[in-house]
């Protein structure tokens, strides 16, 4: 029900009237497929929706909020203009605001599990109202339907439609909220969205059939293009059936409003809980993250579009233009690519894409058809990073190579004005490198770094290495544990507080059962402080039975296996390898 917002509800009527059943299916099928693919792809990649969304929500919160703003604005605008205004006149906007307020109250007072039951009741009542809205068999008004010819405008909208519907569910925080809760409850996200997409398609067919059953004439919009969004209501003039359609449309609107309030609150609460923004020391997080602000922005967009006399198309276009660059970057992260999401670039190109859409919609079908590509160009940095192997390009500020660390070699720091900032940890020249600065907390009574801290630093570097190689590893559902079979470290030199230290770690060797990691600890002033190695083994998480190197370890470590290794490993089954 929450997916049957203004776009699906009213645009299905428009295309069915303007372009016949062929036009309707060209709209409805990609719409349902986009919803299905969201659930199918999200679960088929073995992702935990909660963990994935937790990783991206902070970065993409502005984008996700914008998508909800437009969804609510489109729904409020379409419900008011195409249904309520023809029945209630000047009071239509007041009724819409009342529905919005009541919906927000429902969203605040319920959990998502409870809201699901409410929406189930909505669905039954809505379908019953839609059935009552059909004209009686044999008594349907005889009205000529539009010719339904496929024209240049329809063809120009094909690519924007595909882009908007394929990216749309990924930008909808309500869908993320549902996927997370389905997984948390032990359900199948894939099966749920397959059933949901099929049910949603049926609802679209009901609306299309309802519009064509009543017929009716289109209304000329301010841009000179005929719209059929409200043709069914206009054809019902003087009939009690229009109140049944009003009830059906109101139920669809309410199920969007309450879900938007609840999901926005769910996301903003999660993000702000983890935020260290100084603003939160002065303004309560509940006020900053309140769903009221996005919903107020939606009302402003709705009012502006109504005052300008625009059609619904102008509130729909952001999904195919303005939001596409960020949406493509978000999907790339879900697929495991290292995203280079540049907010300013995506918004600038998105605005240019939206302007191209507006001009093309009224003047040039070719410009209309190509407008989404301009918005998608915001994802090009992510594509470029992927083609470059996912590595960061060297910063232009770096004018000298980083000092090399050779065993037993003393390396002096460059002058302070030549020190270049760098990341605290990451892969460099075959090693995983972690940088740190000891403090008094790391020293003993003599004044040098306590010996046990070198071991602790190596362990921390190892954990970061594991996380870089296997970011999806989770102790809660893992089938194996990684144990340290042995650890050996030779101390070479000492260091003290505030003298920068670099810990380096790489895979030294392996066989079917064990992996040996080599490590070195360097002081940027003293040179090599110590080096050693450790041996890892793997056991079943339930029986503690020793295992061959697990498949996921091979997949994660494979890019970093020593090239001189005599073994060529190939996965043969989960938890086993063959040499």
UniProtKB/TrEMBL annotation:
Top-level taxonomic group: Bacteria
Q: Which UniProt keywords apply?
A: Membrane, Transmembrane, Transmembrane helix
SUPFAM superfamilies, alphabetically? Thioesterase/thiol ester dehydrase-isomerase
Q: Which CDD domains match?
A: 4HBT (cd00586)
> Transmembrane ranges?
20-42, 63-82, 88-107, 119-138, 150-171, 192-214, 243-261, 282-305, 311-332, 344-361
In terms of InterPro entries, this protein maps to: HotDog_dom_sf
For this entry, the protein name equals Acyl-CoA thioesterase
Organismal lineage: Bacteria, Pseudomonadati, Pseudomonadota, Alphaproteobacteria, Hyphomicrobiales
């Amino acid at each position: 029900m929450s997916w049957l917002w203004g776009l699906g509800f009213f645009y299905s009527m428009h295309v069915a009237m303007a372009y016949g059943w062929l036009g309707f299916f060209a709209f409805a099928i990609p719409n349902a497929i986009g919803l299905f693919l969201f659930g199918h792809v999200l679960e088929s990649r073995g992702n935990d929706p909660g963990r994935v969304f937790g990783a991206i929500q902070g970065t993409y919160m502005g984008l996700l909020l914008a998508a909800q703003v437009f969804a609510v604005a489109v729904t409020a605008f379409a419900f008011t203009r195409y249904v309520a205004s023809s029945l209630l006149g000047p009071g239509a906007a007041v009724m819409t605001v009342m529905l919005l307020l009541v919906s927000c109250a429902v969203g605040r007072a319920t959990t998502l599990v409870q809201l699901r039951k409410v929406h189930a009741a909505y669905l039954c009542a809505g379908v019953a109202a839609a059935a009552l809205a059909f004209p009686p068999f044999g008594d349907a008004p005889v009205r000529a339907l539009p010719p339904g010819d496929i024209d240049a405008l329809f063809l120009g909208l094909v690519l924007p439609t595909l882009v908007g519907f394929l990216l749309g569910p990924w930008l909808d925080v309500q869908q993320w909220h549902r996927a997370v809760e389905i997984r948390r409850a032990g359900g199948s996200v894939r099966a749920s969205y397959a059933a949901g997409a099929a049910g949603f398609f049926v609802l679209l067919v009901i609306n299309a059939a309802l519009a064509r059953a009543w017929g009716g004439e289109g209304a000329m919009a301010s841009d000179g293009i005929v719209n059929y969004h409200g043709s069914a209501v206009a054809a019902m003039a003087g009939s009690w059936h229009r109140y049944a359609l009003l009830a059906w449309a109101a139920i669809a609107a309410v199920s969007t409003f309450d879900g938007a309030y609840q999901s926005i609150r769910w996301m903003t609460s999660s993000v702000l809980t983890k935020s260290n923004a100084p603003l939160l020391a002065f303004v309560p997080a509940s006020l900053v993250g309140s769903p009221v602000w996005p919903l107020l922005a939606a009302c402003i967009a709705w009012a502006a579009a109504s005052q300008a006399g625009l059609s619904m198309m102008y509130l729909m276009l952001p999904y195919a233009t303005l939001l596409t660059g960020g949406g493509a970057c978000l999907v790339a992260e879900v697929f495991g690519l290292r995203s280079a999401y540049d907010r300013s670039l995506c918004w600038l190109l998105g605005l240019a894409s939206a302007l191209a859409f507006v001009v093309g919609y009224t003047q040039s079908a070719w410009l209309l058809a190509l407008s989404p590509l301009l918005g998608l160009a915001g994802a090009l940095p992510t594509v470029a990073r992927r083609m470059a192997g996912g590595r960061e390009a060297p910063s232009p500020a770096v004018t000298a190579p980083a000092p090399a660390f050779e065993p037993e070699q003393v390396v002096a720091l460059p002058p302070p004005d030549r020190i270049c900032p760098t990341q605290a940890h990451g892969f460099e020249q075959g090693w995983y490198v972690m940088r740190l600065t000891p403090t008094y907390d790391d020293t003993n009574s003599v004044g040098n770094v306590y010996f046990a801290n070198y071991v602790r630093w190596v362990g921390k570097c190892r954990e970061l290495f594991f996380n870089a190689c296997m970011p999806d590893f989770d102790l809660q559902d893992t089938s194996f544990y990684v144990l340290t079979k042995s650890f050996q470290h030779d101390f070479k030199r000492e260091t003290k507080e505030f003298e920068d230290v670099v810990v380096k770690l790489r895979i030294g060797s392996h066989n079917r059962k064990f992996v040996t990691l080599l490590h070195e600890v360097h002081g940027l002033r003293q040179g090599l402080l110590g080096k050693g190695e450790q041996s890892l083994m793997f056991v079943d998480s339930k029986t503690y039975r020793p295992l061959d190197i697990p498949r996921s370890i091979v997949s994660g470590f494979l890019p970093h296996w020593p090239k001189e290794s005599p073994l060529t490993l190939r996965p043969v089954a989960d938890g086993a390898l063959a040499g």
